[in-house]
């Protein structure tokens, strides 16, 4: 559903999902972020449109997820370096080069594997493979996460330098019944707030180039002293909790976060 909101109707999204797959052991937010990252890469490889296919399979003691696109594809040299940290073929400002290397790290942490097949002009096929959980849940199917509807529709300003987050989180917020505005950095967020933008909540990335999240937080507090703020960070920085405690109405949102995490924080 999130992908269909972000493809601008230029890409056909198809699902080929095998029913009754066995369970795997995993961290949902990290796996969701990995899949979204792969899908965003696929969309970037199809600027003129195309097809994005998501498929799942059960193969003996493994569960596989396939993300396949009909895009530009990769040369053999690019494939060899595709999972190197900070390696990217995208223009400056369009990618960090961390997507596939982070996916590789998350797959390794889950005891899984990642395989890339691609040819120039013939698209790319990324296969993620996970071991089946040794013991299925005694009560059968794993419980689905229940996301209660929002108590109140909020207008949220999301401030993050990561293009993937700016494209996927607003769709999550809208699905949860809220409205989203986005800014790619602290200066842009401050300009919009100073120009009169009214919001109920600020989701602020802590680690941004230029004006950091901490500096942005201090300046936001000068103009909006009572605005609730969620500080999103993937790092446990020394002394961060003590610093944030100095600001009323500020709490943390650990990265990576999924829709259930976001819903729980917004309800508080």
What does this structure look like?
It is a single chain. With 268 residues, this protein is α/β, with parallel strands linked by helices. Helices cover 32% and strands 24% of the residues. The strands form two sheets. Strands 1-2-3-5-4 form a five-stranded mixed beta sheet. The protein has a five-stranded parallel beta sheet with strand order 7-6-8-9-10, sandwiched between helices.
Strand order of the largest sheet: 1-2-3-5-4
Number of beta strands: 10
Q: What are the secondary-structure elements, in order, as H or E?
A: HEHEEHHEEEHEHEHEHEH
Strand content: 15-25%
Largest sheet: 5 strands, mixed
Global mean pLDDT: 79
C-alpha termini separation: 25 Å
Uncertain runs: 91-98, 137-146
Rg (CA only): 20 Å
